[in-house]
Amino acid sequence: MPNKFSWIVLTVVLMGFSCDSNQIFDEYKTVPNQWHKDSVMSFTVTPPDSTQLYNLFINIRNTNDYKFSNLFLIAEIDFPNGKIVKDTLEYQMAKPDGTLLGEGFTDVKENKLWYKEAVKFDEIGPYTITIQHVMRNNGEVEGVDNLEGITDVGFRIEPAIN
Hints:
By secondary structure, this protein is mostly beta strands. The chain has a single domain (22-159), classed as Sandwich (Jelly Rolls). Helices cover 10% and strands 46% of the residues. The protein has a four-stranded antiparallel sheet, with no helix packed on it. Strand 5 and strand 6 (84-92) form a beta hairpin. The chain is globular, with a radius of gyration of 18 Å. Mean pLDDT is 88; it is low at 9-18. InterPro entries: Motility-assoc_lipoprot_GldH (IPR020018). Keywords: Lipoprotein.
């Protein structure tokens, strides 16, 4: 009988950890094999409350095939009324010894990367967020055509907590 009780407790605990009350929006796009430099990941979201502040995150899942210590991205937010905000971003993806950063027990690591803090979506309608990599090898002018090791690109919105 204690064995059955242990399974019930374990199931309840796992269900509690799997629920994420912070997320307003959380979506991933799978990268097939390699992330081509012209492949733009696009997310469309209609925020629920135009009076609240939100934190925005870019989520990246990568494997040991990722060969760089950093990641350069261009992220763009297209507002419903036509305004566009474009950012060039750099994120550290590995320690100096080459160990990949991120969460995960297998060779797939998940990185929750800060994008914007305390954002107010004050325009009514859908917002489109696009994310594109702009990686290059050291000393080369041309960008990396196909970025290896990225398996998924995601976008997440959480309420900003004061």
